[in-house]
Design brief:
single chain; alpha+beta; six-stranded antiparallel barrel; four-stranded antiparallel sheet; 3 helices; 22 strands; 42% strand
């Protein structure tokens, strides 16, 4: 008797939690009718994407080499330091270059004076030759001496410019604005022309270098919008734009290398990071529902559709999310009525107004 009473009490409490049951003249007891906020599913244009993977690479990367020769007397940068275009990275001992420049300047003055004297001699020779005072052979010799003096003066000027360049090259400068990835020399080391002294990378903008399967190459072109994520910042989406496409499909992997340019003003993104990217290739109309209309359990998403006055629970395949709305790839159609906001009382088979 106690068992029967407990069961009856439990059934009574269960009925009270869902609402008051309806009794009809035929003696049947029916489920209560629940009033819920409903919404008709509409279609909206939703972007279609090609999912790809890749990595971030520097927009520019240079292993900066010295054009000069000498001992390093100062290193102006460290790893991770931001540098402007033309900023000093390493300084070499300039004393030898200064002496060479001083010598070259003196040589220029001497050869310029010699060339001026030769020009005057040639002018007098012209007058004497017209007066038949000197022979053709002497005249030709004077003219050749004049040309040689002019050529020697020009050569001295060129040597002076080379000496000036050697002095300028005593300071190794950044070729573009960026970040120092690595400094390769220390004070006291002796470097020659061609010795790498530092590596500089440009990271704003930065490139998302991804690979597109051969079957989808025809969908991708310059100017398309890209969005990508990196493991370092979960849940954060970064924008980019397709800029460069390789001329050939790689033979072994059968894919195309594509570079998308992304702004990176705060330098959060770093070369070498792995990326999951989506290239927007078009759009198509798809059913769209409020985020609140979904009941998500792990990888499964459910929605509640009104069918014949009752709720029908359906598994749906989610598409793109845009604000508070989610596109549905499969499971619901345009024009169907759904529960706009899923609450604890919503369940499969519930009668609704």
């Amino acid at each position: 008797m106690r068992i029967v009473t407990a069961v009856a009490l439990a059934a009574s409490l269960s009925g009270a939690g869902c609402g008051v049951q309806e009794s009809h003249a035929d003696g049947q007891v029916r489920d209560p009718v629940v009033k819920l906020e409903l919404r008709t599913v509409a279609e909206k244009p939703v972007g279609t994407f090609v999912a790809v993977t890749g990595q971030l690479v520097a927009n520019q990367r240079a292993q900066v080499a010295s054009d000069g020769t000498g001992r390093v007397i100062a290193t102006s940068v460290e790893r991770g330091q931001t540098v402007a275009a033309g900023e000093a990275l390493v300084k070499l001992d300039p004393r030898t270059a200064n002496l060479s420049l001083a010598d070259a300047r003196a040589q220029v003055e001497a050869w310029k004076a010699n060339a001026e004297r030769a020009r005057r001699d040639c002018a007098r020779a012209d007058d004497l030759f017209r007066q038949n005072t000197i022979s053709q052979a002497d005249y030709d010799r004077l003219k050749m001496d004049c040309k040689a003096a002019e050529a020697n003066a020009n050569a001295a000027i060129a040597r002076q410019e080379l000496a000036g360049k050697a002095l300028y090259d005593a300071v190794v400068r950044a070729p573009f604005a960026g970040v120092v990835d690595e400094r390769l020399v220390n004070v006291g080391e002796y470097v020659r022309a061609g010795t790498a002294v530092a590596t500089v990378v440009e990271v704003d903008p930065i490139r998302a270098q991804v690979t597109v399967p051969e079957s989808q190459v025809g969908l991708v072109h310059e100017g398309q919008a890209v969005e990508f994520e990196v493991p370092a910042y979960p849940g954060v989406t970064f924008p980019a734009t397709v800029k460069y496409l390789s001329a050939t499909v790689r033979e072994r992997s059968r894919d195309l290398v594509v570079d998308a340019i992304a702004p990176n003003p705060d330098r959060k993104l770093r070369p070498g990071m792995f990326v999951n990217a989506r290239i927007r290739v078009g759009e198509q109309p798809m059913p769209v529902v409020p985020q609140a209309a979904l009941r998500v359990d792990g990888t499964l998403a459910r929605i509640y559709v009104v069918a014949n006055g009752r709720l029908e629970e359906r598994l749906v395949q989610l598409g793109r999310r845009n604000g508070d709305e989610v596109a549905i790839e499969a499971g619901v159609k345009k024009g169907e009525k759904i529960v706009a906001k899923v609450s604890a009382e919503v369940r499969d088979g519930l009668r609704v107004e």
